[in-house]
Specification:
Helices cover about 75% and strands about 0% of the residues. The longest helix is centred in the first third of the chain and has 34 residues. It folds into two domains: about 30 residues; about 230 residues, MetI-like fold (Orthogonal Bundle), CATH 1.10.3720.10. By secondary structure, it is an all-alpha fold. The protein contains 14 helices and no strands.
Length: about 290
């Protein structure tokens, strides 16, 4: 009996009553193979031409290591900041009605439509030494443009909509009666947020974090203007790949890209596992 149940757990889920399951599944697999897997496999294959010694030399090069640290470190910090403020923005848009709400709601999507180069130029003009904000921050000893701080700000700018638009629909499904019931049972506002609201939002928050992080790791256009692109200081890994290509070092460029691919895959896999665990624990999204 137990073995039958175990075997049943490995079977495909029964297809929908809508016909075309086999055709759509085949199209999905073919699409993923042609558009995603084959290009990535070609990237790994090209970098394998360096051999293990050549690949390790590129991977352990101090300039490569520093660029990877800046890219992934700044992306992680920016994603964390976006999680905090993204949830707050989504909460304000869902729970409150005020003049100009629809305008703010539209502004949230602006980084989606704005070319990344335009965003980089705007941020540089704002935080440069003679910029609107930079001229006030510079006397205080706070330098933003052409530093890793500027990179983080640029990544926060382009990543915020991913968190807001992921959390907002889930937050709209949580009815106010749930909060009122918690207050009736004696829960404080802090307890209501931490024990009632956040568990239900946790899968969406993790999804928003993963999307913002993935978007930030591969960002190029908005960062190169405000970063200054100084080796060992504010040089990101995507820029280093472009530099290697301009030097006709195609194998070195593919090696750095392969390293970024592996690190990104591992981090997103961990995030997805945590997300699946939270869904099973709290019973949301099942």
């Amino acid at each position: 009996m137990i073995s039958n149940r175990a075997n049943a757990g490995w079977r495909f889920k029964r297809p929908s009553v809508i016909p075309g399951f086999g055709l759509t599944l085949g199209f999905t697999l073919a699409y993923l193979v042609l558009i995603v897997l084959i290009p990535l496999a070609g990237l790994v294959w090209r970098s394998a031409g360096l051999g293990w010694s050549g690949f390790s030399a590129v991977a352990l090069d101090p300039r490569t290591v520093n660029a990877l640290k800046i890219s992934f470190g700044a992306s992680f910090i920016a994603a964390l900041v976006n999680v905090v403020f993204g949830v707050i923005v989504a909460w304000v848009l869902v729970r409150y009605r005020f003049p100009g709400r629809r305008i703010i709601d539209a502004i949230v999507d602006l980084p989606f439509a704005l070319p990344t180069a335009v965003a980089g130029i705007a941020l540089t003009a704002l935080y440069a030494r003679n910029g609107w904000l930079g001229q006030w921050l510079e006397p205080l000893g706070v330098k933003v443009a052409f530093t890793p701080v500027g990179i983080i700000i640029a990544l926060i700018f382009i990543g915020l909509p991913f968190v807001v638009r992921t959390v907002q629909p889930v937050m709209e499904e949580i009815r106010k009666e749930v909060e009122e019931a918690a207050a009736t049972l004696g829960a404080s506002r802090f307890q209501t947020i931490t024990r009632v609201l956040l568990p239900g939002l946790q899968p969406a928050i993790l999804t928003g974090f993963a999307l913002a992080f993935a978007r930030a790791v591969g960002e190029y256009g908005s960062v190169i203007f405000i970063a200054g692109n100084l080796p060992y200081v504010s040089e990101i890994a995507p820029l280093l790949i472009v530099i290697r290509l301009e030097e006709f070092d195609y194998k070195g460029a593919t090696a750095i890209a392969t390293i970024m691919l592996g690190i990104s895959f591992l981090m997103l896999l961990v995030i997805n596992l945590i997300q699946a665990w939270s869904r099973r624990r709290y019973g949301y999204g099942t």
